UniProtKB/TrEMBL annotation:
SUPFAM superfamilies: alpha/beta-Hydrolases (SSF53474). One of its GO terms (molecular function) is monoacylglycerol lipase activity. This is acylglycerol lipase. Its main location: membrane. The lineage of its organism: Eukaryota, Metazoa, Chordata, Craniata, Vertebrata. It is an enzyme of class 3 (hydrolase). It comes from Latimeria chalumnae (Coelacanth). Keywords: Endosome, Hydrolase, Lipid metabolism, Lysosome, Membrane, Mitochondrion, Signal-anchor, Transmembrane, Transmembrane helix. Lipase that preferentially hydrolysis medium-chain saturated monoacylglycerols including 2-arachidonoylglycerol. Through 2-arachidonoylglycerol degradation may regulate endocannabinoid signaling pathways. Also has a lysophosphatidyl lipase activity with a preference for lysophosphatidylglycerol among other lysophospholipids. Also able to degrade bis(monoacylglycero)phosphate (BMP) and constitutes the major enzyme for BMP catabolism.
Amino acid sequence: MDLDIMNMFVIAGGTLAIPILAFFASLYLWPAALIRVYYWYWRRALGLQVRYASQGNYRFCYSCRGKPGNKPSILMLHGFSAHKDMWLSIAKFLPKNLHLICIDMPGHEGTTRTCADDYSIDGQVKRIHQFVESVKLNRKPFHLVGTSMGGHVAGVYAARFSSDVHSLTLICPAGLEYPNESKFVKQLRELEKTQDVYSIPLIPSTPEEMEDMLKLCSYVRFKIPQQILQGLVDVRIPHNDFYRELFLEIVGEKSRHTLQENMHKISVPTQVIWGKQDQVNLPSFFIVFMKFHP
């Protein structure tokens, strides 16, 4: 009897050890794959499904939950070099009966990658409007949310397609000329002079550069294991040439201040959110915004 109990514990221990060993093997051998599994798991847990919509030869990738109802649908636009899954931490706080759509911005993740014309702010606005029409999201005005580059695009979209938009949320949006330049912007001006596209702080190629980027973009400091940093880099490296092309396009003269140039056209109720410690887009955005919306 004692031997049977001992065998039972050995079998149970072995059964538990297998997934634990598999986890650590994945962490050290395939950290990028583990990160993808993490996003897949949280999408399923939150009830989000990945779908595609086409407009001619162009394909949009997005995740969604719920169906259009009495309340406005929500369309969320992510920032530079991110993807639709960056909104998962927000989606878990939103009521599940709301119709929610998180799209991969032009050229990002599962959405078609084409040419520089689509990467300018004007080009991205046109593509997002194509997506809205392809899924018939504008049958009723929807709530539009954008952060950073996505905030830049969202603001310009609301200015140009006001009949589509019920209300607008801009989270630390880019696209404005600030009264004071951040250290980040000053660094970009130096890069503009040297044309050193391999030193852009938002496009890391090593775990160390990834850690520096996270410090730049996050006020909360936390220690991330080296293998996770490596996994984050491994996921991004195949796309870094695209990120460089996109970055040069959105900070160029054609796109740099497109939001500011269109701010006076925004007529829908607008919520602005920013961090007091933001090192990329300074909170002085509020001063600029109030000039157009007192």
